[in-house]
Hints:
By secondary structure, the chain is an alpha+beta fold. It is 19% helix and 28% strand. The chain folds into two domains: 5-231, no CATH class; 249-391, no CATH class. A hairpin with a 2-residue loop joins strand 3 and strand 4.
Amino acid sequence: MADxxxxxxxxxxxxxxxxxxxxxxxRTPARLPLLRRLLRSRTARAAVAAGTAGALLGAGTAAWRAxxxxxxxxxxxxxWDSFDDGTMEALFGERETRVEEESLQPDPLGGxxxxxxxxxSYGEGRAAGQLTVRVRTLDGLRGSDAQQWPEEFLGAxxxxxxxxxxxxxxxSRAWLxxxxxxxxxxxEYEAATVVDLAMGGTQSFSEHEEEDRAVLxxxxxxxxxGVLRDFGCSGAYRMPGRLPEPTVRQDVTAHSFCGxxxxxxxxxxxxxxxxxxxxxxxxxxxxxxxVNYKSLDATLRLTTxxxxxxxxxxxxxxxxxxxxxxxxxxxxxxxxxxxxxxxxCQTGPVVFMxxxxxxxxxGRFDLTRALxxxxxxxxxxxxxxxxxxxxxxxxxxR
Length: 398
């Protein structure tokens, strides 16, 4: 492909998309394992070596090897030369910042994390905020990323980045997948390599949510482009224009549950389900709806993952997550807290997931079994993968 005009992605193996214009098959060059630390102010960029190596070691601020010293480069922008002064000001304002930056390299022990960058801001002599940027390949084989990563980065507060960008963002979280032409093809057990950003708690309330989300999206695009350069890959993502509307809470209606035409809420649950929040819908990599049950917290989460490079994260749950279920074009599993079903659609594998986060008033954990069949049927029709019928049988009595 020529470039990431409008954020379009290059198709890769398994129907998943690739991302920015990048050299096919480009790989991460060998790098010295060292930790770069920078002390940075927006008004006067400076690299402070704390005087002596002993001072750095005493503060625990650097990883040392025999014959090597920490690299402090006052000319380089933070996080793999990604964040310029404008980005830093948008993220942290006038506050002083300190950056801890690992060099990006494959884990020699076979881990999936390439490295991370952490920026801490300070005000009145104390830490005031922190941004963590990680570069990692999501686990599509062992299932280690099927729980915590979706909890943080596939919640209903996450909205699509738009402009064809393969990522999502909220006011406190963002992620963007790197192109397969740079990182290698994804497949049934090979998930995407992503750059993810975390700033504050996932449920943090902001009076400027739309503005904060726009800042984090721009930071994610800048970080992803910095990683592509560091990896030696060509091409870059373009900054999106107007972002999709942020997610909002809405009242639950019995006959258009989560705004999905044809999905009705079983009568036994209607009284307690009062509001829902839907995010990521439209042309994004995933759609998510969270619903409460007589509380402020989400009790139920419905997720549809249409990006094949992301759906691989749930491959272990599809095979070994509980009681097996079969459908028209796929299969999956069901347990009390999570039901996962994967269908073979024209665009590639699509994952439908129903999660019950807490028990109902009477202690029941049966929403996953009750909602998986109608949810799959309605969502499959909505995304053009229908008709899809799933049969969930009763578990054997003991």
